[in-house]
Each structure stands twice: as structure tokens, then as C-alpha cells.
Amino acid sequence: MVAKESLAYYTFHGLKQVAEKLASLAKIACPIIITSLLMYSKSFVSMLFLGHLGDIALSGGSLSISFANITGYSVLKGLAMGMEPICYQAYGAKRWAIMTKTYRKTLILLLAAVFPICLLWLNMEPILLWLGQDENIAKVAKIYIKYSIPDLIAQAHFHPLRTFLRTQNINRPLTISVIGAMLLHCPINYFLVVYLNLGVRGVALASAWNTLNINFGLLVYLFMSKTSLRPWDGGIASIFSEGWHPLLALAGPSVLSVCLEWWCYEILLLLCSLLSNPQVGHELGADQPKQAQQTSIVGFTLAALWGILAFLFTTALRDVWGRLFTCDPMTLGLTSSLPVAALSAFKFNMGFVGLWFGMAAAQVSCTCMMVCTLIYTDWKQQATRAKELTQENEDSKNDLEAPLLS
User: Fold this and answer.
1) Are 231 and 351 within one domain?
2) Which sequence ranges form a coiled-coil region, renumbered to this chain (predicted)?
3) What angle do CA 261, 265, 271 make, to 5 degrees?
4) Which of 27, 248, 289, 386 is 20 to 30 A from residue 145's alpha carbon, by CA?
5) 290: how many CB neighbours lie within 10 A of its CB?
6) Does residue 215 sit in the same domain as residue 285?
7) 44 plus 133 within the same structural domain
8) Which residue range forms the structural domain that includes residue 342?
């Protein structure tokens, strides 16, 4: 009898912890989901306006966006992800100065990365021609990416600022800023593309304007907020003299991971024209390995369910997506086949579908490796490692710990 009562208690206690984790994740995830959907809808709107400019404009703009994602945006996002482990664990350990210095270093790193990316973008046309792209499409792509450089610079500021706020569990200002920017995005596109008759240049400039509006909204929040940590708090002179190795050591694998994930989809588009949870970091920083493990399991399960829902939604509307951008029957046929590509690959010898089958195989492999990592991770060791990263340095004159910043 006692054993049954004990089992019931522990079962109830475990379910209660799972429910608490679900509520905590929902509080964090819902604004992020809304924000991500709205940010991706920026490209959706851009494609709509490009499609109305003609087939050449749509093809050139799509190719340019793909090239920009491969060579620019994925690199910036990956480099910015290097600051996430440091800031998440520093926030859990209440080491505020580490967060501000990490933000400023990441911003400098991203701005430095912009220069070689811009040089590559300005020389995109001969690269596309060498890859066998149509000359007219390559010319349009060059125009689009040239006028996307302001957006690249704005993104270099946006990524570290978003991470800085997200590591403090501050997501609502970003959501509000993105909503405001998206409400203005269609009118701005119309003004630049139709009223000023800028064409493809107007679509690219409208994307840059959108990112600038988001940055402006976040900066207004930081200036007006009396409670949040500000990234410009503290001096900047020591940033250049202190060691950069910890940030760079994290940014390297991060940029590789993000680039591989993005490149899979974007390289697929090029071929047709011829793949962190803040709660885990906070709990590791607070030396709570059990809670970190529970958060990881709950988050992974929710992600799997969300993926299934997204698949069902995409399949149900497979005949609708293409008509928003073009009326070409061949393109519409290929678009409608995307959600069922993996299923039909075994039965039909279709090249386009084969590309998507390869993508499905890559995603399955990635998922299996993530499950294995989740199962075999020693969470106590990870918590100890996080504690070491934020360990106070007795020789430091302030609370900027050597294991992170030197």
C-alpha cells in the first residue's frame, strides 16, 4: 500500500514537473513562433511582388535570395549563435557584464564579416554565369543582391540584439516590433515597387527597410525600458584588448551548423534552376541538470508534433502555394508535388522529387543523431561545465570571468 502511494506521488510529481516545463516553454515559444512566422512572411511578400514583375524578375529575385542566404544571412546567423551559450549561462549565473561584452564582441564580429560578403555579392553575376545560369536571370539577380547590401548590414545588428534579449527571456518586444514592421512591409513594397517604379530594386530595398524597422523598435524598447539589461552598459575600450577565443570557438561550429542546414535548402533551389532552447542554458547555468534534461525532452517532443502539423498543413494547401506567385503550369505541378516527394521517390524515377527525397533522408539522419545526443548526454557533467564557464576569477578586477572572456 505504501509502495503504491509512493509510486502515485512520484508519478503525480513527475507529471506536475512536465506540466510546468510545458507552461514555461509555451511562454517562451509562442512569441518566438509568431515572430518567426512573421519574419519568414517577409520573403513571402517579396516573392509576391517579384512574381507580379514577371517570370524573369521572379526567377532572378529567387536566385538572388538563395545566393544571399547561402553566402550572407546564414553566415551572420551562425556567427551570432556563438554568443547564445555564453549569454544563456551567464544569465543563469547572473553575470550581467559578460552578456554586454559578449554582445558587443559579436556585433563587431558580424560587421567585420559583412565586408567580404559584400565583395562576393558584388561579383555574383560572373559566378552565376559560370554555374550555367541564364544571362538575363543572372543580371536581375545581380541587381537584387546589390540593393540587398543595406539589409545585410541591418541583419548584422539585428542578430546579436535579438539573441541578447532572448537570453533574458525578453521576447515580446521583438514580436511587437516584427508585427509593426510587417504591417508596414506591404505598403512599403507598393510604394517602392509600384509608385516609384523601382521594380526589383524596390523589393530588395523594402526588405532592408523592414529589418531597419525591427531594429528601430528594439532600440526604442531598450531606451524606454527601466528594467532590462542594456547592451551598451559598460565600457568598450577593453573589448579589443581582451581575448576573443571563447566566442570564436563557439561561433565556428555554430556557423558551420547553420550554414549546412540553410545550404541544403538553398542549394536545392540553385539545382532546380539549372537544418537552442534558452531554458536549457539557464538551468545549466543555475546548476540544475535534471530540469535541463526535462526541458530538452519536452521541447524535442513539441518540435516533432509541430513538424507533423506543418507537414499536414503544407500538404493540404499544396495546390494553393504556387498560384500566389506564378501561373506557369510546369512550376505549379512541381510545387504541388513537394510535400509527397519522399513518398513517390520509391515508385517514380523523378529528378526533382529525388532532390527532395535526399532532403528527407538528411532530416531523418539529423533527427536520429539529435535523439541519440539527447539520450546519452550526461546532464550533470554539462551543468558542471556551465558552472566552470561562469566561475568567478579571483584575479579579475570585475565580474568578467576569465573562462568566458579571456
Assistant:
1) no
2) none
3) 135
4) 248
5) 12
6) no
7) yes
8) 277-393+401-406
Residues 203 and 65 in one domain: yes
Question: Which class for 258: exposed (0-12), middle (13-18), buried (19 or more C-beta within 10 A)?
Answer: buried
Structure-block grid coordinates of residue 262: 540553410
Gap between the Cα atoms of 131 and 138, Å rounded: 10
284-312 pLDDT, tens digit each: 555 555 555 555 555 556 555 655 665 56
The interaxial angle of helices 245-272 and 74-81, nearest 10 deg, is 150
Q: Quick one: the chain helix, strand, coil %, rounded to 5?
A: 80, 0, 20
Residue 333 has pLDDT above 50, yes or no: no
Place of cell 538575363: 136
Cα(291)–Cα(280) distance, integer angstroms: 8
Say whether both 361 and 286 belong to one domain.
yes
* CB-CB contact of 73 with 43 (8 Å): no
Amino acid letter for position 172: R
Tally of domains in the chain? 2
Distance CA 33, CA 166 (A): 13
pLDDT tens figures, 158-173: 999 988 888 888 888 8
Dig out the grid coordinates for 325 from the structure: 506567385
- 228 versus 269: the higher-pLDDT residue is 228
Examine the domain organization and report whether 214 and 293 are in the same domain.
no
Q: In the block, which residue shows the cell 554582445?
A: 103
Contact of 389 with 89, CB cutoff 8 Å: yes
**Domain edge (last residue) among 245, 269, 294:** 245
Query: Residue holding cell 566552470?
Result: 388
Q: Which helix (H) or strand (E) holds 348?
A: none
- Minimal CA–CA distance to 99: which of 174, 160, 156? 160
Instruction: Please report, for the chain, how many H helices and E strands are present, in that order.
Output: 19, 0
Residue where one domain finishes, among candidates 245, 269, 291 = 245
- Name residues whose C-beta falls within 8 Å of residue 290's C-beta, 6 or more positions apart in sequence: 379
Helix (H) or strand (E) holding 53: helix 2-53
Considering only 158-172, 204-218, 222-236, 363-377, which range has the smallest mean pLDDT? 363-377
Query: Which residue bears the cell 510546468?
Result: 20
Q: How far apart are CA 240 and CA 247, in angstroms?
A: 13
96 and 222 in a single domain? The answer is: yes
